[in-house]
Amino acid sequence: MATANKNLSVYDKNTIPDASKFRFGIVVAEWNPVITEGLYNGAIEALSDCGAKAENIIRWNVPGSFELTYGCKKMAKTQEVDAVIAIGSVIQGETKHFDFVCSATAQGIKDLNVQLDVPVIFCVLTDNNMQQSLERSGGIHGNKGTEAAIAAIKMVTLGA
Ligand SMILES: Nc1c(NC[C@H](O)[C@H](O)[C@H](O)CO)[nH]c(=O)[nH]c1=O
Ligand SMILES: CC(=O)[C@@H](O)COP(=O)(O)O
């Protein structure tokens, strides 16, 4: 598994642009809050480590990952942010619902990157079980929230 061979939290701060002048929106799904709060904490810590100011970070919550697309669209259109991070945790249950939620969320966020002039970062874990989610939100494989924050800073400065 690719993630098993890569720590999601490792980055070289010397290669990351200063984020002090940028504004970030973070939309967090409320399903699996232990996981999404861990992802959020990873993102906030990385943004701060790279110079982002707390007053320049706006957080909204949405019920679940399926609502991330609408929440990120509204954030980007109304809050004058330079990038948006979509945070969610989808965990396989007994039915095919997992497949539909994951696919719709990934496609919706991809579509926002086509439609909007603001990058929307896909920080949605799509795991088989809670253990895998814990390992990727501050566990042995690092934190995808950290990875997403670094991606957001890089995308804001793309082409600069
Ligand atoms: N099972 C998970 C969900 N399901 C809820 C949907 O995301 C959505 O909120 C509902 O279908 C109403 O539109 N959401 C997650 O984020 N994670 C899950 O594991
Ligand atoms: C991803 C989901 O919606 C899923 O966790 C719901 O569980 P189930 O498939 O058992 O209804």
UniProtKB/TrEMBL annotation:
Primary enzyme class: transferase
Keywords from the UniProt entry: Riboflavin biosynthesis, Transferase
Positions annotated to bind (2S)-2-hydroxy-3-oxobutyl phosphate: 94-95, 136
Residue ranges of the TM segments: none
Entry similarity comment: Belongs to the DMRL synthase family.
Family matches, as SUPFAM superfamilies: Lumazine synthase
Reaction(s) catalysed (UniProt annotation): (2S)-2-hydroxy-3-oxobutyl phosphate + 5-amino-6-(D-ribitylamino)uracil = 6,7-dimethyl-8-(1-D-ribityl)lumazine + phosphate + 2 H2O + H(+)
Biological classification of the source: Bacteria, Pseudomonadati, Bacteroidota, Flavobacteriia, Flavobacteriales
A GO term from the CC aspect: riboflavin synthase complex
Protein name from the UniProt record: 6,7-dimethyl-8-ribityllumazine synthase
One annotated GO biological process: riboflavin biosynthetic process
GO molecular function: 6,7-dimethyl-8-ribityllumazine synthase activity
Organism encoding this protein: Arenibacter nanhaiticus
